[in-house]
């Protein structure tokens, strides 16, 4: 029996895994239902659509930047399982607000003045929810799992997250917005139920007072975490990856609509392919490394990601003008001559990305003391969210100055070089720290 199979049968892992999947599914169902509705039913310009997509991404990640220090302290100083239960109860309330916004949008009632603000408010609140849950989902693993199981557990969490993203994205693209409004509330209830089954995870070290000054605590947390060179390089490499990912996810809906002349179901398909690819990459790298936490393959993986991005850009540029001005459905889209090449390069981008990022997360949970893991993940979330906000704002700025979404793909590909360099430096630091 493999380690992964053993973990999926164990109460010390399965309830956390299911709770995380339900949360990721709900996040993406709600966010994509909102973005696709606005892009395809409210706005009618590439610039406005890209700007709204960027704003939605920024609204979701800003809470990570502001609250991760507090959430990391809380997770290390309190029982992590108890925090999960509180956070999941809050998700029910948040989704009631978000569902109301989706329902108003479906009915065409005050779409710009009430429905969209309600949806953005719920999206911000889900960012707050995830900023408190995020440190726990990785930091709890070394507490419940054996050291040789941590990489498998991290890979399963990452793969499960992207499978959930996949499912949420598919559903958001294929069901009417009023059904999405109902489903997000139901899923929030289910997440609360599964969260009750997570075993206790009390503090592992000395319980210290919480610092509620979010600026001071954030600066102190990042500074104190970055003193280990391997942790510093892992965080910086992950941050570049998520900045790249933020730009790509912002680009997909307007790219599908305005460049590829495809429907919202095709935009959803792009996000699905990306999520499947990251899940495949997450599992594949665990098989290659055989449970060893190492950045050995990270530089080559992210270079491969850049190469596939250039190929994806080339296919987009060579794409035709569409079918008589009508948006193509999925069947029409996949019958196009370049469709397989487009989807293949997109899958390659995602697989390479998954292979790049999973070992880096494992670094953050295995190379620090167990009493510091939540704060280490929280520091990573602060830097990651800052990078994602920068990526979102950069995408909005590039759109505002007239750079097309296709040209922006080359900018993203160039950023992969920086990630590869950071991955190489991390591998060198890893080799230097290895015992002789």
From TrEMBL:
Localization, UniProt: Cell membrane
Record flagged with keyword Ubl conjugation: no
Keyword Transport attributed: yes
Transmembrane segments: 55-74, 86-108, 114-138, 150-171, 177-195, 231-254, 266-289, 301-320, 340-364, 385-403, 409-427
Pfam families: MFS_1 (PF07690)
Alphabetized UniProt keyword annotations: Cell membrane, Membrane, Transmembrane, Transmembrane helix, Transport
Membrane topology term: Multi-pass membrane protein
Protein name per its UniProtKB record: MFS transporter
Organism ancestry: Bacteria, Pseudomonadati, Pseudomonadota, Alphaproteobacteria, Sphingomonadales
